[in-house]
Amino acid sequence: MKSICLYFQIHQPFRLRRYRFFDIGADHYYYDDYTNKSILRKVAKRSYLPANEVIMDLIKKYPGKFKVSFSITGIALEQFELYAPEVIESFKALADTGQVEFLGETYSHSIAVLKNTDEFRDQVILHSKKIKELFGQEPKVFRNTELVYSDSIGELVSNMGFNGMLAEGAKYVLGWKSPNFLYYNVHKPKLKLLLRNFKLSDDIAFRFSNESWSEWPLTAEAYSNWINSIDEKEDVVNLFMDYETFGEHQTKDTGIFNFLRAFPGELIEKYGMTFYTPSDLVEKFQPVAPLSVPFPTSWADEERDMSAWLGNELQDEAFQKLYGLRDLVNSSGNPEFVKDWQYLQASDHFYYMCTKFFADQAVHNYFNPYQNPYDAFMNYMNVLSDFSIRLEQSINRIKYNDVPVDELNGELLDKAISEYDQVLKKLRKNRTAQKRADRKAALKSPDLPELTKKSKAPSVKKGKKE
Predict the structure, then answer these.
(1) Cα 436 to Cα 432: distance, rounded to the nearest angstrom
(2) Which domain holds residue 69?
(3) 419 is catalytic
(4) pTM higher than 0.70
(5) What rounded mean pLDDT belongs to the chain?
(6) Could you give the C-alpha distances from 375 to 18, 277, 380, 430, in angstroms and in order?
(7) Which of 159, 174, 326, 346 is most enclosed, with most CB atoms within 10 A?
(8) Structural domain tally of the chain?
(9) Residue 351 forms part of a structural domain
(10) Is the pLDDT assigned to residue 75 strictly greater than 60?
């Protein structure tokens, strides 16, 4: 009997305000608070809260047979805490049922793993701490930003202690093989891989309300029958999608919530299937074969690669400049810089710069605050320029007893000024002495002309020109 894994991604970036060239060096606040709050409140009302209500009802209706999993980025959780704390409480209630698993993620929804593995580790650890703090779980299965995966990334994740990882079941990777089995990393056999069935997942996430689709309108009965018709030898069906699918990408009037409420019951009651979390599946099944993925894959666009984020020169330049600042951020020791650094790493900023069109254009335009990729690039680089300047100024600030001089006051400031004054006097005295020594050495040099040795210059007699 097939096992179903239902997983949802939740992420919202801190969107940047219109930051112009003349703001550089003059205004150091980068975020559009009004837009961030408005979008989060709207999506919470239309998607997160009603979807969580349906999930809770299903858990209660099918105890032990219906489970789901989520990965929620750290910066999304921060925005819930700021703008919609009721969403946090709703997820806590789901966590308390014991039927919901929260997966490991990058805190900033970044693609740092492609540039700096130390930064990647730091973010994963920070995210795991946040999940433990809010929901009392220590993530054991990892889901990288946008399902980005490769052999080397899997090896890194395994070394961090995760025993399972989600990935895209891309055709060009699988070939003739099916995504409906567990596989394992070629370098770390203990890391089991759950592959997304992209066709069945996208039938809900993208095609559900498309009236030109041959299968529209999609019913719970038809969808469940498709899953049941999969070869009985295939163990597991992984349905991975954005949680905003319910109520936001597919609005309530399309019947999406009724579909969510109905199709699990069809699978459980009619076909005897059970929904499991990724950790359940990692324990329940043995992988059938290694999966070789030498280059990073993702679940984005038709290519299922990294071209949505690093597919043009604009994105590459911004990406390189961003991660070139990491050492300065760490050297600063300033929590304000660290926070900005986290927010600026969100992969959304690079996604907005994508110049791909045609089939993928509608996806790239969703929630995109810019008119075109070039506006996105210029705005981001203006912010990054100011951030870079602030970092360099911070690192170069003069300190006294580890305290920046411009933050001192009272007797300590007077003492610092006095000590620096003595240092300056000593430097001037040493410089004067050095000049004298250089002059004396020059006068003794046999290679210099007589004029240099202060010899008398020959007199010039006035007379007629010859």
Answers:
(1) 6
(2) 3-308
(3) no
(4) yes
(5) 90
(6) 10, 41, 8, 54
(7) 346
(8) 2
(9) no
(10) yes
